[in-house]
Write a structure and sequence with these properties.
Elements: E1 5-9, H1 13-25, E2 29-33, E3 49-53, H2 61-69, E4 79-83, H3 89-94, E5 99-102, H4 107-117
Parallel strand pairs: 1-2, 1-3, 3-4, 4-5
Domain Response regulatory: 5-118
GO biological process, one term: phosphorelay signal transduction system
Organism: Mucilaginibacter psychrotolerans
C-alpha cells in the first residue's frame, strides 16, 4: 500500500512538531511548513491531504484554501482547516475546506478525519 502524504501548514512550530510526530508514527509521510505562502507553490509532490491553519502570518488559510480549490491540479486535495477560534468553522467550510478542527484537538479526532478523507 502506498504511503499517504500529508502536508501540515501551521505557523505554530509546536503544533507542527507534535502532529508531524504522531502522523509519522501512524505511518504517514509528512511534510510541513510554517509559511502559508509555500502551500501555493506545491507543484510536484502534491499531498494526499492538507492540514491548514486558518490564522497564519502573512496569509489567511481561507484564502489559501480558495486558491487551491480553484486550480485543477490541487482542487481535489482534501483540506482540513484548523484554528484556535471555534466560531469560524462556517467560514472555513465556505472557503472550500473539506473539514474543520478546533484547537486544541484530540489526536484521535484528527486521525479519524484524515482516515475519512484519504
Amino acid at each position: 500500500m502506498k504511503q499517504k502524504k500529508i502536508m501540515i501548514a501551521d505557523d505554530d512550530p509546536g503544533i507542527v512538531d507534535a502532529v508531524e510526530m504522531l502522523l509519522e508514527f501512524e505511518g504517514y509521510q509528512v511534510t510541513s511548513t510554517v509559511d502559508g505562502a509555500t502551500v501555493l507553490d506545491m507543484k510536484d509532490e502534491l499531498p494526499d491531504l492538507l492540514l491548514l491553519d486558518i490564522w497564519m502570518s502573512g496569509e489567511d488559510g481561507r484564502d489559501i484554501c480558495k486558491k487551491l480549490k480553484s486550480v485543477s491540479a490541487t482542487k481535489n486535495i482534501p483540506v482540513i482547516m484548523i484554528s484556535a477560534s471555534r466560531d469560524i468553522k462556517e467560514s472555513a467550510l465556505a472557503a472550500g475546506a473539506d473539514d474543520f478542527l478546533a484547537k486544541p484537538f484530540e489526536m484521535d479526532e484528527l486521525l479519524k478525519k484524515i482516515e475519512q478523507l484519504t
